[in-house]
Amino acid sequence: MKGAQRGAQRGPRVFYGWYVLAASFALLFVNAAAHSTFGLLVKPLQSEFAWSRGAVTSAAFVNLAVYAVSLLVTGRFYDRWGPKWVIAGSAALVTSGYLLMSNLDSLWQLHLYYGVLAAAGFGGTSVALFGSLMGRWFEKRRGLAISLALAGLPLGQFVLIPLVSDAIAVDWRTTCLWIALTTLAVNLLLTFGVIRGDPAQLKMRAYGGGPDMHAGEHVALSSPQSGSTAEAAVPTHDLSLGEAMRTRSLWLFTVVMFICGAGDYLLINHLVAMVTDTGLTETVGASMLAWAGLLGLGGMLAAGPAADAFGNRLPVAATFTLRTILFVMLVLMEGTAVFWVFALAMGFTLPITAPILPALVGKLYGIRHIGLICGFVTTVHMLGGGAWSYLAGVLFDRTHDYRLVMLLSAITAALAVVCALLIRDERHLPPVAVSEPEGAPGVL
Q1: Long-range contacts of range 14-19, CB-CB < 8 Å, 24 or more positions apart?
Q2: Rounded to whole angstroms, how far apart are CA atoms 119 and 38?
Q3: Engineered SS bond to 138: which of 11, 145, 388, 418, CB 3.0-4.6 Å?
Q4: How far apart are CA 349 and CA 262, in angstroms?
Q5: Are 220 and 429 in contact (CB under 8 A)?
């Protein structure tokens, strides 16, 4: 009895947030199959139904547009009710979409099943939600924790994409069925068995967080009389989405994320079709996409610590500098080796903004509304991905290659570099707390 009392006094040896992190990793690992399958289905759907590439990728546009809206909805639901029922309901929608896809026979059904149902479910199983979840559980080493959790997605892509590709080659309809059932089982098991939305539910604080961490924060402001930095008597609070939208930094980062989504989903939805157009096999294309996912694991693990050490702007600017070079390379060069370099290097950059998004939002605006703000920014990210996935298919149908697509992608990536460098990477004040509305440091 005394030993049990001493154990109770010591409390748990392992901080529960690490279990939440591990479960988030596993959920993203398994959900990678559903999130990354469409690019493998483009050519099989073209072949079976004689649809153009623009027609097939129009379903990707619908999917990502609905996905974008679902992020706003799930972000608000997450902030209000926590992640459990959000993840469970989303998994049910993804399962329904893929179950119905196993029997589709027309384009409107592809739009409905994949474009609407599955997409509505993607919002609750996205990196945005799990990044926000890590933001609640970790104050210290937040960037590292987010990177570790979100690493499940690229590692899942590396492991599962080759398996899904081989299964699709045998029967894509049966593959959709198995994706549906696996997604539902794993999501429900881990969500109700492990996931907790907030340390307060277990009467705990965030890892590294002090008592009343967000109840009475004060901002260090420069004293106009002394010229020194002093603790101001102005309390600040976590900014709402509306308040954050009155800052220039949010809109700069939103532009960056729109361009980021365009590049991400160009790779995910077009890489396999692009390389097979040159005569390479679908197995080689799937291998490139899988290895891109593995390299994304390196980018994911590097992004959080880099943001912790150097701030959030420099890793983002470096990411889009590299992307600019890669897109220009595909305009000027071609060949198997060039495709491998493009796939691996793009894969490394693919998830870098994912852990930086909640880390940046938490730093600039606080965590109370982190789900909704991250949902808004990720919504724009998805809209960029959907629009460019579709337009890339249309431009391919008209030009019969991807050179124009790559040139436009290079131009927009260079724009993202400029926007990233202009972000103010520090805590922003609520606009109502600033006495000088123009030029004050809290509103730009």
Answers
A1: 15/204, 15/207, 16/196, 16/199, 16/202, 16/204, 17/137, 17/138, 17/145, 17/199, 17/206, 17/207, 19/194
A2: 12
A3: 145
A4: 13
A5: no
Phi, psi of 52 (to 5 degrees): -75, 165
pLDDT, residue 239, reads 81
What local confidence, expressed as pLDDT, does residue 178 receive?
94
With tokens 């992307």, the residue in question is 323
Q: Which two tokens stand for residue 23?
A: 């479960």
Q: Which residue type does 129 have?
A: L
93 vs 112: CA distance, rounded Å: 12
Q: Which of 202-206, 370-374, 405-409, 414-418 has the lowest mean pLDDT?
A: 202-206
HSE toward the beta carbon, residue 177, CA cutoff 13 A: 7
| Tens-place pLDDT, residues 70-126 | 877 877 787 777 788 888 899 999 999 999 999 999 999 999 999 999 999 988 887
Residues 6 or more apart in contact with residue 172 via CB below 8 angstroms? 41, 44
- The full set of domains in the chain, from first to last, is 14-201+239-427 (1.20.1250.20)
Q: Please name every residue paired with 386 in a beta bridge, in sequence order, or none if there are none.
A: none
Specify the DSSP element, H or E, that contains 235: strand 229-235
* Residue 406 neighbours by CB under 8 Å, 6+ apart: 327, 328, 330, 331
Q: What's 430's DSSP letter?
A: P
**Is 377 within 8 Å of 253 (Cβ atoms)?**
yes
